[in-house]
Amino acid sequence: MLDLIVKKNEALNNQYSLLILTSPEKLPDMLPGQFVEVRVDNSPSTFLRRPISINYIDYEKNELWLLIQIVGDGTRKMCELKEGEILNLLIPLGNSFSLPENKAFKLLLVGGGVGIAPLLFMGSYLKERGYSCSFLLGGRSKDNLLQLCEFERFGDVYTTTEDGSHGERGFVTQHSLLNGSNFDLIYTCGPTPMMKAVASYATKTGTNCEVSLENTMACGIGSCLCCVTDTTEGHLCVCTEGPVFNITKLKWQI
Amino acid sequence: MANLNINIGKLQLKNPVLTASGTFGYGTEYSDFMDISRIGGIIVKGTTLRERQGNPYPRMAETPSGMLNAVGLQNKGIDYFINNIYPTVKDVDTNLIVNVSGSTIEDYIITAEKLNDLNRIPGIELNISCPNVKEGGMAFGTSCLSAAEVVKCVRRAYKNDLMVKLSPNVTDISEIARAVEAEGADSVSLINTLLGMAIDSEKRRPILSTITGGLSGPAVKPIALRMVWQVAQAVKIPVIGLGGIMNAADAIEFILAGASGIQIGTANFIDPTVSIKVIDGINDYLDRHGFKSITDIIGALE
Lengths: 254, 302
What we know:
The structure holds 2 protein chains of 2 kinds.
Chain A: E1 2-11, E2 16-22, E3 35-39, E4 50-53, E5 56-58, E6 63-69, H1 73-79, E7 86-93, E8 107-112, H2 117-128, E9 133-139, H3 148-152, E10 155-161, E11 168-169, E12 185-189, H4 192-205, E13 208-212, E14 228-231, E15 234-237, E16 244-246
Parallel strand pairs in A: 8-9, 8-12, 9-10, 10-11, 12-13
Antiparallel strand pairs in A: 1-2, 1-7, 2-6, 3-4, 3-7, 5-6, 13-16, 14-15
Chain B: E1 6-8, E2 11-13, E3 17-19, E4 41-47, E5 60-63, E6 66-69, H1 78-89, E7 95-100, H2 105-115, E8 123-127, H3 138-141, H4 144-157, E9 161-165, H5 173-182, E10 187-190, E11 194-197, E12 199-200, E13 205-206, E14 212-216, H6 221-234, E15 239-241, H7 248-256, E16 261-264, H8 267-270, H9 274-288
Parallel strand pairs in B: 3-4, 3-16, 4-7, 7-8, 8-9, 9-10, 10-15, 15-16
Antiparallel strand pairs in B: 1-2, 5-6, 6-14, 11-14, 12-13
Helix pairs in contact in B: 2-4, 4-5, 5-6, 7-9
């Protein structure tokens, strides 16, 4: 459990904010795919902590980035935090995306909406270690495509929007990149229907695929058993056995 | 430094603070955050005779000042506990109490019998109040006859401390408390969760896969406090209070209402170290008011 200081809270548009946290101490080591549980306050409507993906770590500046989408009271309050305010976090939690076995692997990171958050950290992590990857990011319209300049630092970026306002029109799984390209490994995070469509594509093409789940949770440390997903090993906690699962382990109907 | 030692039934506790079943895993999940041996007792996750997968997701809904859960007693069964978990927790210097649940009286008996010979388990908490399973659980705890029957049978089978966890989903909880006292319970703990429901109006669907679930957190505290006060007047055996305790002040309220011990549940999800803060806070309270021992304030409402 750690108290971090709000260094910057930047509204990306009226739905999303980038919350940059820091500490006088060196931040703990974190892995892409891991998440934090944020204590918002103790008001009746934000009683539980909020699980938020780690968006990016800037080790030089000792910064932890969290990408926040306003969904309810908790995330709204997070977007209203002012510079210098203190935020209590359980950090870091969960497992992580696995590193590819081979540096020559063709890697694709597919994200939708706020689910792009952990993919930025994963992209930076891969690039630092000599892997190259492509990003395929989708949103309802161009306002839902976030941090594109950040993503471009770590690989090629392809986009889709449902209204055609940016990139190709349609869903990520309809992007022309997926016709003919053979990827060795796909990492995905986003709305469940999107991840299921990506998992279905991966299954059909025989591509290895890891998904990051966003089940609602309470404790974040494996004690309440609220956030389970059904797997080949029975009900497993998304907070401790996940949030990243290989699709072969999930009992998804796809 | 006041004396926080307290005996509850056959249990000897270094302080009156226990962690509630299903909210603290097997304790070891929390050892990264604190010294779990400082806690008076850890009540481990509800355990049944056979492995249970629990209910389908979604199992949780946040509600104003609380949460609903419908986990449904997911656990790997008593044999797995004895062979795989007990060896990893038995050396923690605290009272490890196993919460025992079942679908039939026979299940309760066999599960309790298997725990008789674990010398680091000084007692069980008999769960006759889980609202999230179709068979057993709360069905036993909502009538005096069935509550008495299951306690009578387990009492014969189990020699160590027998704490019985009561359901608030009844007309008169004192009657149930008296019934289980008469059959040999060493103490009663209350309250388990209150049956509740949450709906997603946009989707026009219940949020929980089971439609209804158990409400916990500060939202239930006034009800829990009232029931603890009523039961403490009705029985001679010790009462352990729980329901929405978030801090030491809440804990003191339950003790003043007549509880000899308290359990911390949902608060563990928000602050994993809360039980240590409650222990320290109780000590501060006793010092501040000039009490020498925790026993001085049990049921000490003026």
